Amino acid sequence: MPIYHRLGKIPAKRHTVFRQKNGNFYAEHLMGNKGFGGISALLYHIRPPVTVRQVRCLREIHWVPDVDKTLRLRHFFAGRVEPAASMSMDRTPLLFNEDVALSLVCPTNSDDFFYRNSQGDELIFVSDGHGVLESIFGTLAYRQGDYIVIPRGIIHRFVLGAGNSRFLIMESRGYIRTPAQYRNEHGQLMEDSPFCERDIRRPEKLPLYNEKGAFPIRVKQRNAIHEIVLDHHPFDVVGWDGYYYPWIFSIHDFEPRVGRVHLPPPVHQTFESDGFVVCSFVPRLFDFHPQAVPAPYNHTNVMSDEVLYYAKGNFMSRKGIEYGSVTFHPDGLPHGPHPGRTEASIGQTRTDELAVMVDTFRPLQVARDILPFEDEKYHLSWLEDK
């Protein structure tokens, strides 16, 4: 969970008179999830956020699944996805179910419009690139290795820095949060958590835009992209406080757990939502029992699908993997280290790998758009005489 934060100027008490210099009221705006029962923030706008000049539906969104339902272990050379113009409009669908939708995008330009996902929270992993996330809550600089959490409904825009950008995007039906086992009864991250509140970056500055005009906002809702044109700049917030805002945690700040023998993937858990969890595999020391086998043992994903995005280095249990690769190991099949990987791991003292894992508790479908990048013989790659 994020922690309490405030920026700008706000009145001493909520829902009390708060006037501008010209005598007009600042427009109070409560934003939060789960009706009035979840986390929220209270913002103060120069103008009401509801003064809309125009609305239209731009297009419907249809994620088409692969028609081949054959159960098999799969690998996609997703690092070969071509650059596209827009961070928000040109995403390549990867995998999806009722709880989460995974996509990839390599944007080349900053959007000249604003974006609001009103259909789901977004957890965005910055595989390459740097820049600034602008939102109604202020600015937040991001860089390679960051997880960017953008709760649903927040108007924002990515301003890309120089160089290439590559993002893995997880859109969640439930709200993205830190794992429950890391938090005490008050919501504070505990001493045995692999990260703490000091590692969470929150909006840093609150630039004020007091401008009239026509400002388009692309809104995702009901599996469609809509355009809403405000009669003023949406970032006209003079102050806010609360718990509902974009925030960042870097994978490089995740402190891995190490044991005498191999520890299972839950020790790498970083986020949770409804129906899935996200884990981070980071550089770490290997197990220190004198006869430890660092490579993971064969296992069967009972009641879980496993997705791995490979962001750096050579994953100790895999061969034939490249930067940006995605493996998909569905429920119903065992999987484990490739031939020779177990033996090669013995005696090794550390790994420099970097990967993001998504485990879902309902079956995933493969999106048709990613099929051109599939390694079609991956399921045969455990045969030593292949």
Shape: globular
CATH architecture of the largest domain: Sandwich
Helix content: under 10%
CATH superfamily of the largest domain: Jelly Rolls
Q: Low-confidence stretches at least 5 residues in length (pLDDT < 50)?
A: none
N-to-C span? 47 Å
Please summarize the sheet with the most strands.
7 strands, antiparallel
Strand content: 35-45%
Give me the Rg, rounded.
Answer: 22 Å
What does it look like?
- The N and C termini lie far apart (47 Å).
- The longest helix has 5 residues, at 341-345.
- 1% of the residues lie in helices and 38% in strands.
- The protein is globular.
- It has one helix spanning 341-345; strands spanning 5-8, 27-32, 40-45, 52-60, 74-76, 92-96, 100-105, 114-117, 121-128, 131-135, 138-142, 146-150, 156-160, 166-172, 212-221, 224-232, 237-242, 247-250, 269-273, 276-281, 284-285, 299-300, 305-312, 326-329, 334-335, 350-351, 354-360, 365-366.
